[in-house]
Amino acid sequence: MALLSVQGLGVRFAGTRSVVALDDVSFDLAPGEVLGLLGESGSGKSVALKSLLRLHDPRATQTTGRIVFEGSDVLAMAPEALRRYRGGTVGMVFQDPGLAFDPVVTIGAQIVEAVRAHEPLDRAAARQRALEMLERVQIPQARRRLDAYPHELSGGMKQRAMIALALACRPRLLLADEPTTALDATVQMQILMLLRTLQREAGLAMIFVTHDIGAAVEVADRIAVMYGGRIVEENTTAALVARPRHPYTAGLLAATVDGAERGRPLTAIEGAPPDLADLPPGCAFAPRCPSVLGNCRVDRPVLVRDGLYDGKHACWWPRSPAT
Amino acid sequence: MSRLAALAQPPDRGGPAQPLLSVSGLRKRYAIRGGLFGPRRHVHAVDGVSFYVAKGETLGVVGESGCGKSTTARLIARLVAADAGELVFDGEAVAESGGLALREYRRVLQMVFQDSFASLNPRMTVLDAVAYGPTVHGLSRAAARDRAANLLGRVGLGPALFASRRPHELSGGQRQRVNIARALAFEPRLLVLDEAVSALDKSVQAQVLNLLQALKAEHGLTYLFISHDLHVVRYLADRVLVMYLGIVVELGPVEALFAAPRHPYTQALLAATTAGDPARRREHAPLGGDPPDPVDIPNGCRFHDRCPHAEPVCSAQRPAWREAAAGHWVECHLGDPASSHSQV
Amino acid sequence: MLLLRRLGRNPVALFAAALLALVVGAALFAPWLAPADPYKASMLRRLAPIGTAGFLLGTDELGRDMVSRLMYGGRLSLLMGALPVLFAFVIGTAIGLVAGYVGGFVNSAVMRVLDVFYAFPSVLLAVAVSGALGPGMSNSLIALTLVFVPQVVRVAESVTTQVRRLDYVDAARMSGAGTASILRVHVLGNVIGPVFVYATGLVSVSMILASGLSFLGLGVKPPEPEWGLMLNTLRSAIYINPWVAALPGAMIFVTSMAFNLLADGVRSAMEIRR
């Protein structure tokens, strides 16, 4: 049975302009699997992640669809069950480690607080668990760092501490929202390796949101590409990179500077990511698509399973995998 | 007064062999406010940097946080006063008596910043923003607005549609194009691009990179391209300069540097780039620890505490800056026959 | 302008604006609208209650019509509220701009000097300067301006320092433009907004301070109508006719509230900008 099953998730933000951040998003996650959510600004990837934990303001957000975690409907959870779910069963790592920590409380105290909120441990036992976690994320001199304040740690260390915090209650699913975007290259690689190691050791499932294909490929087993609040393609990492079916995926891969030939212009995608408050009818990518045809601008393509090969795509005229 | 109107571009004085910009011994440090009675500590942001930029080339500058590349850019642009060092532009010393006047320097050298939004005055229209520079240098308002309109068109923002827009009405990629147009309005010879494409979406980044390449050829520009993204640098640059903790550790032609990096830090940086291929995933993190703060500079080689090849000589003595191969310079004991490092 | 449109959608701000329009209108057109001569006294009619025929809001301790006194009083009170803030706005922005842009030693010197003034509670400072200069309207104007300049400079310097750090100021420096041109074209426009919002909030404070000065005998002199002065002279009448005695206070309260609410509205309208 899938660990997490998202069915037809839709999120609309009210406001001066109503924004459809997510539109009919569906995907499954098996236990121990790493799913990468790849997309640029305005693709809806962060919104999807936050919806899994119901982190949006209910007064300003309209959520439709179903999120089923181990059989329970997340969107219908009672407050007490939701509290246990958040942080206990599902942990989250945010993009900016500096913002996720309370600056006036030590790292150790924050981890202890999280642990004790979910498990009936006394202070000493919780502190021991915090120490274990800091050591598992390979923070040097972990005992000293327990009593350090967030501003005393470097960016990379803070991110490790945040991972420790997210994993402290032994969750079954880890949500990571652009965890390495703000870090230097060498530190990014350390954190990606760490996430992979921890995920393998604990059999943890993970959803990794990023705009960087390279990072997604390093970590994910499967990748779902998002555009304009919708999933446009989903496949195993190897298949997606080798045989992209959706023109946007193909465009993203072609536009990667990695491996581009010097002196030759890059294959760029025209235009800019869409405004979610003003999405065109039909396919969201149609205004920029190099292979757009008549019905693309009128009918919205549905995410379908590929008949011959693995994976799913949402395109009326998917690219031939032979290219 | 109307030099801009008369000439298409400032004259090339020294000929092709003379470097366009020559930087020597740049130094900048910032005092940290310590306690009242503690010793004065400093952040050695740039600690003796020297290099040159040849005419018509793209020099890539790479390094991580704390390496000093952004400070170096600001020192070169003279936005910040250097503690020491010399700038020579096409044979003329900058802002020294008998040399190039600062005002003239501010025309031949322009900069594009990373934050496309903060780079534009939120109250000015795009056209006015681009036209402002030339008016400072004596062009009439009408002529400046004309030139601005042309440039906006050239960078892909049709003036009919975009001229009267303000920054918050544009996307990140469009704003960066405006910044490029603004820099070009001066008809500069050297363009410093400080992480100019880093904040853009990948699909937009490719467009802007193509634009930069085209403009370089059209206007005969020279680029100093600062970036943390090695893929982009490999694509764009002719030579690459690697900085660490305020100094240059390696400098060489792009292919040679990427194929056979000589400094262990460069090797680590290259190993830290993602491969984009699930079959070739990294197994080990190439470098432990974090990019250090340039406050307490280690003795000897600055990289020795993180270097996998470190030996006692590395912590005792700073390596010599030597030419390891044609045009490929490195500061490292490894491979230096004159040092007492075991591996040569 | 977009700002006014946003303001128009804020019911509280609209209400405050309407109220202010009423008060200012009454003060402005007092010579034509006032039912009676504000200086005409009559001991027979003194302290008539509210609703007396011919004297809608009663009369004061010298028998002068309250409605007219309040309307004419509004002129002086509003003037004493707005003028010092206006002067402080101009002087303060200029000083703050320069201090914030130049930074370094000049900035520290200016800010520390102003800190000395800032350290005094406004009322005390106003009373002290006013007392030293002597009673009279122009002296209290000077005193109040002096009280507000340090506060405006603080805000202006703070905003200028933030703006100064933004890349577009660096880009302007890189264009070779002179400091004056950069300040005028790039910095001023972006600093004025927040400072203006702050200054609008100061008007009500200024009015209250001015009324306080008049109350203490340091500002406007009798028989000029001014709300603070009227409060003072009506003090003894509080046992005889408390409603009339409270009227000038009510006017001060209502006008200050209106200014504050309007300032809040302007601040919100400017914030949603992004």
Question: How is this fold's topology laid out?
Answer:
The complex is a heterotrimer of chains A (323), B (344) and C (274).
Chain A: E1 4-13, E2 19-29, E3 34-38, H1 45-52, E4 61-69, E5 72-73, H2 79-89, E6 90-93, H3 97-100, H4 107-118, H5 123-136, H6 142-146, H7 155-167, E7 173-177, H8 185-202, E8 205-210, H9 213-219, E9 222-227, E10 230-236, H10 237-242, H11 247-255, E11 304-305, E12 312-313
Parallel strand pairs in A: 3-8, 3-9, 6-7, 7-8
Antiparallel strand pairs in A: 1-2, 1-4, 4-5, 9-10, 10-12, 11-12
Helix pairs in contact in A: 4-5, 5-7, 7-8
Chain B: H1 3-6, E1 21-32, E2 41-53, E3 58-62, H2 69-76, E4 84-89, E5 92-93, H3 102-108, E6 109-112, H4 126-136, H5 141-154, H6 159-162, H7 172-184, E7 190-194, H8 202-219, E8 222-226, H9 230-236, E9 239-244, E10 247-253, H10 254-259, H11 264-271, H12 312-316, E11 321-325, E12 328-331
Helix pairs in contact in B: 4-5, 4-7, 5-7, 7-8
Chain C: H1 2-8, H2 11-28, H3 30-33, H4 66-102, H5 104-118, H6 122-133, H7 137-165, H8 167-174, H9 179-215, H10 227-233, H11 242-271
Helix pairs in contact in C: 1-11, 2-4, 2-11, 4-5, 4-7, 4-9, 4-11, 5-7, 6-7, 7-9, 8-9, 9-10, 9-11, 10-11
Task: Name the biggest interface.
Answer: A-B, 43 and 47 residues
Uncertain stretches of 5 or more adjacent residues of chain A: none
Q: What's the CATH topology name of chain B? A: Rossmann fold
Structural class of chain A: alpha/beta
Q: What's the shape of chain B?
A: globular
Radius of gyration of chain B, in Å, reads 22 Å
Count of distinct structural domains of chain B: 1
The count of strands of chain B amounts to: 12
CATH superfamily of chain B: P-loop containing nucleotide triphosphate hydrolases
Low-confidence stretches of chain B: 1-8
Structure write-up:
The complex is a heterotrimer of chains A (323), B (344) and C (274). With 323 residues, chain A is an alpha/beta fold. Chain A contains 11 helices and 12 strands. The two termini of chain A are 35 Å apart. Chain B is an alpha/beta fold. In chain B, strands 6-7-8-3-9-10-12-11 form an 8-stranded mixed β-sheet, sandwiched between helices. In chain B, a hairpin with an 8-residue loop joins strand 1 and strand 2 (41-53). The radius of gyration of chain B is 22 Å and the shape is globular. The termini of chain B are far apart. Residues 1-8 of chain B have low confidence and may be disordered. By secondary structure, chain C is mainly alpha-helical. Chain C has one domain (77-270): Orthogonal Bundle (MetI-like fold). In chain C, 74% of the residues lie in helices and 0% in strands. Chain C has helices spanning 2-8, 11-28, 30-33, 66-102, 104-118, 122-133, 137-165, 167-174, 179-215, 227-233, 242-271. Classes of the chains: A alpha/beta (323), B alpha/beta (344), C mainly alpha (274). Chains in contact: A-B, B-C.
